[in-house]
Fold:
Amino acid sequence: MSSLLDQSPLLDLAERLVAAARRAGADAADAVAVRSVSQSIEVRDGAVEESERAEGDDMGLRVLVGRRQAVVSTNDMKGNGADALAERAVAMARVAPEDRFAGLADAALLAHAFPDLDLIDPVPPSVAALEQQARAAERAALAVKGVAKSGGASASAGIGGMVLVTSHGFRGAYVGSRHSMSMVAIAGEGTGMERDYDFSSALHAADLADPEKVGRIAGERAVKRLNPRKVETRRVPVVFAPRVANSLIGHLASAINGASIARKTSFVKDRMGERLFRPGIRIVDDPLRKRGLRSRPFDGEGVLGRPLGVIEDGVLRSWFLDSATARELSLATTGHAARGVSSAPSPSPTNLHLQAGPQSPQQLIAEIADGFYVTDLIGMGTNLVTGDYSRGASGLWIEHGELTYPVSEVTIAGHLNDIFASLTPADDLEFRYGTNSPTVRLEGLTVAGT
Structure:
């Protein structure tokens, strides 16, 4: 465990890569290294179906020759690997097309002090403990009346770290743990079978949901889907459960990604400073949230992280930017560069959430005489260039303020401008995912059925 937490060997390796790139003729360079170790267990019908362990170190080098750049990666740095990798990268950069926006981050924006975000659980679980978690989740699901069989339960744990070194003086590293657990339950018989799931994920094992709760919820969700009905096509209020409501916030994140704005491929490209949501709506990205699933003390370019309100009082206030997209848009980076070992930095959100509203989910539903409560979405029918929205969906029909019978094989359709403008959040926000949302109510989507 101590060897995994010690990032100094990877930092030294990254510094060697950067130094080798400068010797080979690069005007600037940065190197990233990622170390990961994980263990997972899958159980089905009370027996271990799969046990897997994975570990590895991956390294990437980006070099800039003038305004030309290249990225190379490897997992083998034996012998003179640093020099060979650097020479190959510089040779590639010299024949690459010019990119006048390419370059390292502004040195004035680099992080120099790294906050303690409590990212690491120092006591990894044993394989036996993971197996016990998976078995407990499966037993709880199978104990739910109406559940016919198990679709499998799993538990996993791992540690991953990242180091970044740049030729203009940045040197940083962080490491975090991840624990997760899931259960898939199958209810019914024959062609009437339905399946559903639940899962829990956290940086610290103490923050995971109880296995019994994960299994029970998976089983109850599967049973609620039995004997679904069709509905006639109509325009009604639609309520999204939290696990699907976060997809709407994800669509916003994609639409305000600096790369989409620079390429003019977003339906909100001309709406900075305009109202997208109702007054009072706030959507925040916070890379510094303690124990956040996507928390990090600096971004993929070494820029200091900070909370960012992308929607304030319903108004669009910021894009997600890295240094290159910021230069292209004549703006400053927001510190949202994400980086892999084999690619240049690009903008990406971290811990993104829609702030909760004052009403409970029951209050949002109680006023609906005829509507649809969505628990699952299918397909990728969202066009971020036009804003057109169409997804397959299943869930429960709402009648006179109550959840009634299950509905499946319908399509919900509208436009993201209208969806955002009519969105009302409930008060049940929980931080379970990288992107989080409470239950939300939308007005007047088309539900297409029979």
